[in-house]
Amino acid sequence: DQQVKQNSPSLSVQEGRISILNCDYTNSMFDYFLWYKKYPAEGPTFLISISSIKDKNEDGRFTVFLNKSAKHLSLHIVPSQPGDSAVYFCAAYKGTYKYIFGTGTRLKVLA
Amino acid sequence: NAGVTQTPKFRILKIGQSMTLQCTQDMNHNYMYWYRQDPGMGLKLIYYSVGAGITDKGEVPNGYNVSRSTTEDFPLRLELAAPSQTSVYFCATNSGSGGDTQYFGPGTRLTVL
Hints:
The complex is a heterodimer. By secondary structure, chain A is mostly beta strands. Chain A is 0% helix and 55% strand.
């Protein structure tokens, strides 16, 4: 039972354009959603999060949107830079000390 | 302040061998986690701990054991290695506040032949 899904395994975007990464979930009881970025041979690093009571959170070039009725969240990166090329994981938390991760989307930003 | 450290970085085991993956954090966090990541898959929780002396199973605990005798250390033990345990293992920690970000170690790449 995949509670958090990232249906696009990969995405290519031109430098300077917008990158949109998507994530769908099935459990309406999740409290928080988080995005992590992972470079090869490194552990994931936190990028941005959003509480389930909000619909948008912004941090510099990164914005996360949450659509609770659609059980969907998205990460927007504007403008995209070559250094943003990485695998992006979304994760959900529901107050039981456990985080559930999606399968990741590999973003490639073309110079 | 090293954050979360994991040793070793790489290891090759033969079927049936045992080993311990080490994880140490200097962030004074109560919560620690072990995940495995298989190719093309997300992170699957193996075990977690909410404090010294307290551990609990995650989604995929079979074939593994953990202990938490101190706040800093959370070793993961493989007793009888199997090819299905070939994976990248990540240790993580967080403060325990709801939805708080997790801090990950660099990972251990394990191959069982």
